[in-house]
Amino acid sequence: MANTKYVCTIGFFDGVHLGHQALLSIVRDIQRNNGLNSIVYTFNEVAKLNYGFITTIEEKVKLLKNFNIDKIFVLNFSEIKNLSPSEFFEKYIVKKNIFVVVSGRDFRFGKQAAADIHLLSKLCKKYKIASIIIDDYTISDEHKLYSVSSSVIRQKILAGDFCLVEKMLGRNYYITGEVVEGRKVGSLIGVPTINVLTDDSLILPKGVIAGICKIADIEYYSVANFGFRPTVDGRNFLIEIHIINNDFEIRKIGKVSFRPLRKIRDERKFNTLIELRRQILKDKKIASNLFNKILRRETYAN
Q1: Fewer beta carbons within 10 angstroms: which end of the chain, N or C?
Q2: Is 159 a member of any domain?
Q3: pLDDT of residue 282 exceeding 90
């Protein structure tokens, strides 16, 4: 590694959204045009994150690999959080033979995130390392301009604005988890569900949501409840997915993914299972109408 010259970028890259992708594309271009190798430094966690992550560490690394980065290092936050800006820079930039550093304007580093891009540029100048600062990536949605950021995407996930979430990510937004055994209340009232547990680190929407369930690369129109199931005294957060117009054996399913499209309502407690069933049938009708509109739009487009 001592004889190899690198271009690098550093960040948490939660979601690997359009802003991250623009930055990574610049790293890739510098790499190709200057005969350098590339490094991405990311972290296993960050301080002061209230709601959870958009992607797991594994998903994030997989997305980063799409940019043909030579080396991806997931730094242990607990091991670097007390390094001063100068200590961090010397350890991960100077001693790693970095020739170019690419970062966004909001990049911060060092203990308590004390250093910003101004100190980064100063340190780069001191060690004769090129520094390139990338402006915020912006998109327009319904005549409003947004700076794309992980924090805004998290807010929109909680608000149920999945269309804007996908615009900012630049791809379909899927939530993936393991199928677990349920209490079969759904089957009892005639609306069987696939019960899914996700990684504890993920931020999740809440409420009843129309979306697409993907099982073994096959997609099914579905309606799902994200929540604690107050009608049946549920204590743990669970995703319950009911697949519309399809009956099949679900016991052998391992992982499923759910793409939320439209929030129908908030989760609430019903007095009886009969009331719950009535409401689920209403939710299914709303979801079915949404899917019919999607199908008509796709047919018209073709």
Answers
A1: C
A2: no
A3: yes
Contact, 124 vs 130, CB < 8 A? yes
CATH number of the domain to which 235 belongs? 2.40.30.30
Alpha-carbon distance of 17 to 191, in angstroms, equals: 36
Residues 6+ apart with CB under 8 A from 24: 9, 16, 40, 64, 67, 69
In a domain, 148, yes or no: no
Residues in contact with 275: Cβ distance below 8 Å, sequence separation at least 6, in sequence order: none
Same domain? 122 vs 227:
no
| DSSP three-state, residue 226 | strand
Rounded Cα–Cα distance for residues 153 and 18 (Å): 11
| DSSP-derived secondary structure letter, 202 | B
Strands (E), 244-281: 255-265
Task: Quote the number of domains for the chain.
Answer: 2
Phi first, then psi: give them for residue 28, nearest 5 degrees: -65, -40
163: in domain = no
Rounded to two decimals, the pTM is 0.92
Contacts of 149 (CB under 8 A, 6+ apart): 17, 19, 106, 136
Residues 200 and 115 occupy one common structural domain: no
Per this entry, what is the length of the chain?
Answer: 302
Mean pLDDT of 20-33: 97
Query: Tokens standing for 102?
Result: 């690419």
pLDDT above 60 for 284: yes
How do residues 54-71 score in pLDDT, each as one tens digit? 999 999 999 999 999 999
Query: How many other C-beta atoms can be found within 10 angstroms of the C-beta atom of residue 28?
Result: 15
Residue spans of beta strands (DSSP E) within 80-119: 98-104
